Amino acid sequence: MSIKQKIISKEHKIIRPPPECMTFVVHTGKVGRFVKDLETDMRIMLAPYTYDKLRVNKKNQIRDFVEAAGDLEATMMFLLRCQQDKLVLSLNRFPHGPTLHFNIKKFATMADVRAGNKDSATINRTHPGEAFPILEGFGDSNEDQTMVSMFQGLFPSFDPLTADLGLMKRAVYISKSADGNISIRHYLVEKTNPREVAMNEAIDKAMSTNLKNYNSMTEYLDEIHKDQPKKDKKISTIKLKELGPRIDIVLDYTELNLFGGMKMQEQIKKRQMKRALEEKAAKEEKEKAKH
């Protein structure tokens, strides 16, 4: 049995129509236990649009996953690997690319987050519910817009104005800072019952109210009743509790094809040089026309 067949045999057959996005989260080569834990956590983060039953062995190469992608109808792949003294995270789109290569600056697994944060949360690893992406800090450059497109491609199309937010149990927050560092965070979304919100507000108000300003408790309760929201007015709050993993990365370079081809930075430079030559030629022609 080929490596490709072994990969496919480990994954459940897709009986329902395939979703618009499915992502491999895998590694190649020799990696440590913590990197394998990160791989598992990233699969949970992207669930249900990933292959949680996929098994990877040290003999697997990138080409094995590329070949298996067509049969399993995978659209994206996150690849972890060690290169020299760096831990690299690559993100590619099947079947033609592009491929983004990031250097991982630091990371924390879900277990690390639980151990270090008393306000962290846990989820059902088998049925974690759906997640939606939140992207912030990306600019209008070709490089940034490519990253936005690739990160959005990890999730189904999402319109906050029409989506059923009741089904969204988790959020994946991906932000880019001014210095180019990219942070990936994973949160549980908790919605508070409107009645519970109103009750908590009433309790907070009661705790902070000087009852000496009222002639009787009845007078105070009458005022509280007047301040209560109407029944048709819904008040709700959303709490985010961190689940992990935490991943801090920086873009190294972008390949226009699937693990190959010209680098985007080289293409941009080539276009800039071409534009500069064209402008120079046009300027020279204009000068000649004057004489």
From TrEMBL:
<feature type="region of interest" description="Disordered">
    <location>
        <begin position="270"/>
        <end position="291"/>
    </location>
</feature>
<dbReference type="GO" id="GO:0030687">
    <property type="term" value="C:preribosome, large subunit precursor"/>
</dbReference>
<dbReference type="GO" id="GO:0019843">
    <property type="term" value="F:rRNA binding"/>
</dbReference>
<feature type="domain" description="Brix">
    <location>
        <begin position="21"/>
        <end position="260"/>
    </location>
</feature>
<dbReference type="InterPro" id="IPR045112">
    <property type="entry name" value="PPAN-like"/>
</dbReference>
<dbReference type="Pfam" id="PF04427">
    <property type="entry name" value="Brix"/>
</dbReference>
<feature type="compositionally biased region" description="Basic and acidic residues">
    <location>
        <begin position="275"/>
        <end position="291"/>
    </location>
</feature>
<dbReference type="InterPro" id="IPR007109">
    <property type="entry name" value="Brix"/>
</dbReference>
<dbReference type="GO" id="GO:0000463">
    <property type="term" value="P:maturation of LSU-rRNA from tricistronic rRNA transcript (SSU-rRNA, 5.8S rRNA, LSU-rRNA)"/>
</dbReference>
<protein>
    <submittedName>
        <fullName>Brix domain containing protein</fullName>
    </submittedName>
</protein>
